[in-house]
Write a structure and sequence with these properties.
The structure is a single chain. The chain has helices at residues 49-80, 85-96, 339-344, 480-489, and strands spanning 126-133, 148-150, 154-158, 162-167, 173-178, 183-186, 195-201, 210-217, 222-228, 241-244, 248-252, 257-261, 267-270, 276-281, 287-292, 295-301, 308-313, 320-326, 329-334, 352-356, 362-367, 372-373, 386-388, 392-397, 407-412, 418-423, 437-443, 446-451, 460-464, 470-475, 500-502, 505-509, 522-529. The protein is mostly beta strands. β4 and β5 form a beta hairpin. It is globular. Residues 148-269 form the Pyrrolo-quinoline quinone repeat domain.
Amino acid sequence: MSHPPLPPQGHRPPDPHHRPHGMHGPPGNHPGSPPGYPGPPGDPGRPPGRRRTALILAAAAFAVVLVVGLGTVLHLNGSFRGGDQETRQAAQKTSASPSSSTTAPTSAPPFAKSEAEPPARANVAARELFRVPQPVKNGDDSIASDGSWATDSLYISGGEGDVRAYHATTGKKAWTVDLTGTICEASPGITTEGLIAVLSTKKPGKNAHCTQLTVIDVDEGRKLWTATTPGEHQSRGWGTSVAVTDALVAVGWEHRAVVYQAGTGRQLTVAEAGCDNRTFAGQERMLSVAVCGKEVVLHDHSPETGKPTQTITLPPQVTNARIVSTDPLVLATMTKLPFLDAEKYMTMKVDQLMVLTREGRVQATVDVATGYEIGCDERDTVCDQAVVTDDTVYTVTAVESLTRANRVVAFDLVTGRRKWSAVSDTGTDRKATKHRLVPIRAENDALLAYLTSTFRAKSEVVRFGPDGRRETLLRMPDTREINDTQVNMASSSGVRETPRFVNGRLYLHMRRSFWWHLTDPVMTLAFGPR
């Protein structure tokens, strides 16, 4: 709502009731013109007092009539259109906010757009806690450092032939668990009992098979057990998944899958022949997806035996799938490619998010074929650009270029409809900083995300509430060297782990393929409050 122009003479005194542009008063009210405008000056040579008083009284009477009449018109307008108070308030908020565009194909209510300058907590300034240089390796072999985990007091990651833990505030080594070879794949999370699992080669070398499954207790810093995966056709790491719950540990690859007892390492079951591309997901419960002939099936595994207790055949149009969340159950599916192509390609080919009930009924679907980045990696089967809460799935739009920001989009798990969308840049003019937004994890009903640094601006950890409002939690130091390092570390989802944010600290980690001739100096970078 625009304010009336100032009169040509006089001065407007400060108004304690004035609100900045875009803010509204109580529901149903609009801020009126601020009081305190001076009346027109009296005629020359005549005392202005009585005339000014009369003019003020007349204007006040006219204003009362105008407000009453206008209120009646507005009330009749709202009643005629069937608009209740909530509808009118929503319309007022929508008209007050700038219009926004999106690539989302699903119809939805108006966006709840994040503010140009989102609120920040009182103390969000961060300092660098520590950094870990990349492994040094001479020769033709590359080094993989898959795995990134964090607790309140430790940061744990894969290293050169080991898994290592650092004290969260100092970066000093807390413990190291040695492996026999190079890490091929790692479980994405820590169980409630503090367990993680890694798959590695039996010996160093680029042609070695990935046969050694190791389970580690991160609270005690010790190896629980190591088992050799069975069978002739062993994994080479590509398309391999490792998952862990407090009861089970599972590893699946193109032609085989095996499930172990988490506490002892006892082999429980080996998947039957006839199914390919088995991928597992753990944490709350152990689930797996496999392509069996011309069907894609989902298994729920018994925590006692490791065998499937429930088998769900996905709709016939689904040719491959990845598990985004086990509870609620959300899948990233492919429906537009034939089975042969779907078995080979997962990156950027996911076209639908599918929400299932516990019984296997399709509850909702979300079309993400165009303009979205779900982050399903063809190498390790993880979809790290989608985050699920009890009632919402958050994902991001694809980054079209380095000069454009992406958006976070929230979808309702029950209906599949879009709730809101928020842009990742800061500022509203042409010089607005174009951050890239990377999802981290859920926090209750909210989304935690990492706004990547640019060559012009510092990075941030932000929280998007269930209503789309953004809050800054941590702001990294603004130095050219730190910004450049973060840009390099976050440039590709294929070589970085999902950022970790625990107990107010941010951890960035590069996960694989450090060649001896590359010059990127950092494997891990950690930040925390000053």
